[in-house]
Amino acid sequence: MQPRRRALAVSLVAIFTMVSVGCSTEGQKAGTDTTATSNDGTTTVVEPGPNDEADPYIDALKRSWQASNLEGDDLPMTDDQIDCMAPHIVGILGVERMKANGVTPADLESDEPLDFSGQDVTEEEAQAVYDTFGTCGMDLRDLMLADMADDEGSDAAYLACMEDALSEENVRLLIVTTMVKGTDALETDAEVAPVMAHVIGCNVASMDEDG
């Protein structure tokens, strides 16, 4: 596979790895409400309060992301972003659900992210997780495009095509759909299909230019 054809996959995998801890647990819904939904359906992230049960999970998640930074993660996070993200993610997904599924704080520090596939993440939860990145100062679209620009196989025409394909709306759709339905949805989901067709078209056009 050409480097530029791997760019989207690499970017998505990096982002999914960041949010997969806890997202892949099954069972009960979130135990701490950190979202508010308005009449127009907009989801707002609400700052979670202190929680003795949640603190070990929050601290473990922080240590996991800090370790990823030291290992040269593709999408490094600042300390402020880590401090902001961890309580929101744990609050949205819920300590009770993680405990019910046997997920301990130590599991959140594992080298292997928990798997998304077949897990009970609701669309509302996935939307809230996505919104948390923005709340904590991380623009996922910008991060993805920057990751692609750093790929030695990406030229200007390819990057321009991908900027068009990966609108803010489409990036949200890809990430939320994957959190809810798993990575296979990138190939099978009808709503995602037009976005992926555009992305594939960018890759095909770029390869044709290479001759």
State the gist of this model.
The protein is mostly helical and 211 residues long. The protein is built from 10 helices and 2 strands; from the N terminus they run H-E-E-H-H-H-H-H-H-H-H-H.
Task: Lay out the secondary structure.
Elements: H1 3-23, E1 35-37, E2 43-45, H2 55-70, H3 79-93, H4 95-100, H5 123-135, H6 140-149, H7 156-165, H8 168-181, H9 185-188, H10 193-210
Antiparallel strand pairs: 1-2
Helix pairs in contact: 1-6, 2-3, 3-5, 5-8, 7-10
Query: Unreliable stretches, pLDDT < 50, 5 or more residues?
Result: 1-7, 21-39
Arithmetic mean of pLDDT = 74
What is the total number of structural domains? Answer: 1
> Class by helix and strand content?
mainly alpha
**What's the β-strand tally?**
2
Coarse morphology:
globular
Q: Gyration radius, to the nearest Å?
A: 17 Å
Question: What fraction, in percent, of the residue positions are helical?
Answer: 55-70%
